[in-house]
Amino acid sequence: MKSAATATVLDCCGVLVFVIIGRHTHHDGDSLAGIWHTAWPFLCGLALGLIVTRAWRRPLRLVPAGLGAWLGAAVAGMVIRVLAGQGTAAAFIAVTLAFLALFLLGWRVAAHAVGAARRVPG
Predict the structure, then answer these.
(1) Is pLDDT of 2 > 70?
(2) Strand, coil or helix: what is 60?
(3) How many domains does the chain contain in total?
């Protein structure tokens, strides 16, 4: 899988899974409007990170694509969230960094592991 479109979809799914788990954990509801309200700053940050790092060139790479996706979604997303008047707390920032690292870097690590396993003669 080397498609930038596929990588972008996986990144967006990672952000949405993070949001859905968080909203469910905090009993904030699972309505599409609620999910969108929480997700859009992180999705905008993700887009910014992918554009700045030109992630479409090598979408599977941890650096710069994965790093850009993660820091864009987490850091820029948090800034956008604050500018939009949505709340933040230190614990939320830490959880956001950790979970988005897991989701946005994790699938890239798994893809590399699968690729490496396929190349090993058996």
Answers:
(1) no
(2) coil
(3) 1
